[in-house]
Design brief:
- The protein has 125 residues and is of the alpha+beta class.
- The chain has 2 domains: 41 residues; 58 residues, SH3 type barrels (Roll).
- Helices cover 33% and strands 22% of the residues.
- A 5-stranded antiparallel sheet has the order 4-3-2-1-5, with no helix packed on it.
- The mean pLDDT is 83.
Amino acid sequence: MAAAGENRFVQIHEIEELRHDAYESSKLYKERTKTLHDARLKDKKEFRVGDRVLLYNSRLKLFPGKLKSRWSGPYTVLSVFPYGTVEIGHEDGRLFKVNGHRLKAYVGGPVDPSEEVVTLHPKNK
């Protein structure tokens, strides 16, 4: 009986050791993955004063629409605060402080209206 009890005690400690090793391995994997992910993001999310950006509108998730754009703007970056906070302003004078993760760089300019014309042909019956 004493040998069986000692054997059971050793088995329980082996299971605890395996659980601890799995936890440590998982922790190291998550740290490596986060480091790689953050390194990839930091280059693209640095905004400077004067940059033109688009703001993600999270309220459109409530009313999904295939053709609705979830990005509004363009806005101008007025100031950049620590920890990713950015103050942006619209042409009409509205000011916002938003998290930098809700912004993306605006790439664009004036669009020639003649290029936007789409001619639709009637369907033949």
